[in-house]
Specification:
Order of helices and strands: HHHH
Shape: globular
Structural class: mainly alpha
Number of strands: 0
Number of domains: 1
Strand content: under 5%
Number of helices: 4
């Protein structure tokens, strides 16, 4: 049986923005290490990486939206 903390963790990992997972795939690094990097730098720099994270999440969601609605050239 999974604990409530594990359920919340999987919810955020699967349904959140996916920024850390995206960068983990691109850089071939574990996404947990990237999350820790964002957390530690947020504490050290008083939250400025949160703004960067949110802007990256916005761009990724925008890219997904464009890919979903864009058809092929032959759909004209």
């Amino acid at each position: 049986m999974t604990s409530p903390v594990d359920k919340i963790k999987t919810l955020f990992e699967h349904h959140a923005f996916g920024v850390c997972e995206y960068w983990g795939e691109k850089l071939r690094i574990k996404s947990a290490n990237i999350r820790l990097f964002f957390i530690y730098t947020s504490f050290l720099t008083i939250g400025s990486p949160v703004i960067i994270y949110m802007s990256m999440a916005f761009v990724l969601n925008l890219r997904k939206l464009v890919k979903r609605h864009r058809g092929s050239v032959w759909d004209l």
